Amino acid sequence: MKVRTRSSAIIGTICLVASLTLATASADEPVAPRQAAEVTLKQVATAQNPIAGAAGPGGTVWIAERAGTVRVLGAQGLGRPVLDISDETTTDGERGLLGIAFDKKFAHFYISYTDLEGTSTVDEFKVRYGKIQPNTRRTVITQTQPYSNHNGGDIKFGPDGYLYIALGDGGSGGDPHGNGQNLDTLLGKMLRIDPRGGVPYAIPSDNPFVNDPNAKDEIWAYGLRNPWRFSFDSGTGDLLIGDVGQSEWEEIDWAPADSEGGENYGWASMEGNHPFRGGTEPANHVPPVFEYDRSGLGCSVTGGYVYRGDAIPDLKGQYLFSDYCDGTVRALRMENGKVTGESDLGVNGGQIISFVQDGDGELYLLDIAGKVSRIDPA
Fold first, then answer.
1. Residue 77 needs a FRET pair 20 to 30 A away by CA distance; which of 4, 48, 177, 317 works?
2. From the DSSP assignment, how many helices (H) and strands (E) are in the chain?
3. Alpha-carbon span 376 to 177, nearest angstrom
4. pLDDT in tens, 317-368
5. What is the pLDDT of residues 27-72, one digit of tens each?
6. If we measure between CA atoms, which residue out of 11, 3, 5 comes closest to residue 189?
7. What is the rounded distance in angstroms from the CA atom of residue 301 to the CA atom of residue 216?
8. Which residues make Cβ contacts (< 8 Å) with residue 137, sequence separation at least 6?
9. What percent of the chain has pLDDT over 70?
10. β-pairing, 219-222 with 23-26?
């Protein structure tokens, strides 16, 4: 695929805590709960504010701690840090080390963090024999942040081999700068870049706005408030995003694997399916596939993964997610981008800040208070 290089380094990162509870409502109408798969949570490690994770080389699982360390999960728990940038970041507001990712060949390792000035930054390291090569570090992209919240920060490689980066709207409340609907900023967006195709990166030629002089070429989708964890279904390639709401509605957004990008998820004109503060629904608004209100204990959606492991056959093909304040693990059954069923799996992971998928499709939960747990069959 042809790419056009870009020498500006401008990004951002993804979210932390926000809004809602798990009183279920689908994007169109409520769906009846169904018999849930029987699962249990097995604590496999304790960490210092674990916040993100990734499947690593040799079947390993790598865990990022918010203050700036990365450790590898083994049979005896987490090993000593294999990377430490704790003197380069801060944990005020929603800042810190927020995301990690490997490319498909485990040849490069990427970190997403906010630096001491609060600038969202994605750096790259070469990996050799499963180990980070510190002297190969380089900065891929940066994005200044006007506030200390809604940084986003999740990063993942898509099935197409490109790096996707989720950035919040810049923070404060109510999107005061109108970033969500403004295509001339990277804030409030999902980005798609080729980190190895240029210096410091290249832009895929089929990104949706490459020929639009009024839009940033890096943008893949927009209208996001604080996308807190996104994933690609390893079975279908579909994209799912947990986007944190302002004060009333939490949402999960979906795009099919054959999407050409350009989706407008509505913020800040919309919060879920609902006009926000008298806003008008954009004509190209892509509504969420699922939303829930804040009438219960929920306050901030934590997006997860479609389960593709073998340990829990009854769970296969279902999308798991949670809420930072509620902690209940829930599952959605979906067909062609429509929710057909929703269930409570009957386990609570605490302050769930992230899900992690290993190389076999099994899922782990990260409790920001310290627990690292695996979802096992009951």
1. 317
2. 0, 30
3. 44
4. 999 999 999 999 999 999 999 999 999 999 999 999 999 999 999 999 999 9
5. 444 444 456 799 999 999 999 999 999 999 999 999 999 999 999 9
6. 11
7. 27
8. 123, 124, 125
9. 91
10. unpaired
- d(Cα 313, Cα 310) in Å, to the nearest integer? 6
How far, rounded to the nearest angstrom, does the alpha carbon of residue 126 sit from its chain's CA centroid?
23
Query: Are β-strands 249-255 and 290-293 bridged in parallel, bridged antiparallel, or unpaired?
Result: antiparallel
Q: How far is CA 259 from CA 118, 226, 232, 256, 316, in A?
A: 32, 21, 12, 5, 23
Report strand pairing: 352-357 vs 77-78.
unpaired
Rounded CA separation 103/55 (Å): 10
Six-digit token string for 220: 């893949």
Concatenated DSSP letters of 361-378: S-EEEEETTSEEEEEEE-
Q: Is 121 helix (H, G, I), strand (E, B) or coil?
A: strand
Compute the radius of gyration of the chain from its Cα atoms: 19
Q: What size, in residues, is the chain?
A: 378
What is the Cα–Cα distance from 256 to 228, expressed in whole angstroms? 19
CA distance 360 to 50: 21
**For residue 239, what are its two tokens?**
């994209």
Cβ proximity of 167 and 187 under 8 Å: yes
Are the C-beta atoms of residues 141 and 114 closer than 8 Å to each other?
no
